[in-house]
């Protein structure tokens, strides 16, 4: 099904780009070969951004089309809603429309405010528990923000992985022996299995003294394949990753180290699932994850993660968000190519189908959910935990959820049998109870923050308190 084209109003983003490049309106209009008045209308959102100008800007300034859409704005508004729910802001509430204006007109100031609040919240928590000073942001938060700024797509690295696959040209799609042969021929490294490696907390290690790559013998084939791709990326494309980090990566040492690990994993995923071949097969199978994992010989999680990265300019796949959680609700990975954003503070909403997945291990759970901004998503959730190796083994219980907007969901096999026009069974999903304003939810675990509560005796709701409207909050 062809994707419906919508008008793109990107005035603030265009103005931000022009100011970043120190260009006047006249200079940019001349570069784009349009009139000054036409450019002014686009910057003021009086006219939409035409497709040919979008392509020209992306090529001229090495940007993805996603840079100009409103996904960052939507995520910023969601983060603002959660942040402003803190009681510290009870005397200075902001309406949703003002938050949206703030995120649209001053994105850098909005991000600075959110970073400052995150540092404050972390410092407050640390001081209460340990009485120690806290850093502004944890390294993993810095890397997560950096990855999200790129919409989880790194063009040069993705293309390098795809080119390597095509040069390797594995016979009959047998990638594992092709990678092993390449490592032996080009680097003199043989593959060996070490039964004691897992006891030392390792899954692979390169022993340059004996010229061997030591692998854990208990790993599934798709994991071993991923490890070999990681090693090739480290050996042959380390300079490319380093240049990406020098040019646009985080600046703090620990964040740089984590970002380097992320890029290594990104290269490995892009090598196992080369962009053009993978996107073509995904569209042919209507994004059937089980069909894709069997076709490419990889895991359910590897396919799901790769689907969240398919944002190559001019050849975009469905924009998915991807989250990986443990059974306690801790978010282990979070990437989004659409407007969806996870809760920044507190746990995820228990109504999410990712938690139902733990009750049906190995089975796919499909759900239509509606977020606080009224967007409806098609969510696909499944556990991806491995089985225990011994009676004493305690494998981590993990589940993932992959989601896309309902309009894109029509292009997937997971929409089969669903009435996408009937929204009566759509599940309302909140950003965590602290920022969720739905009073009629029996799953609420604590009141919404920053609002006055009604606990009167004349009525009792599904929870023993109701948040009063904002005008009564003071």
From TrEMBL:
The keyword Oxidoreductase does not apply. The keyword Transcription regulation applies. GO terms for cellular component: cytosol. Residues 14-68 form the HTH cro/C1-type domain. Belongs to the short-chain fatty acyl-CoA assimilation regulator (ScfR) family. Keywords: DNA-binding, Transcription, Transcription regulation. One of its GO terms (molecular function) is DNA-binding transcription factor activity. This is ImmA/IrrE family metallo-endopeptidase.
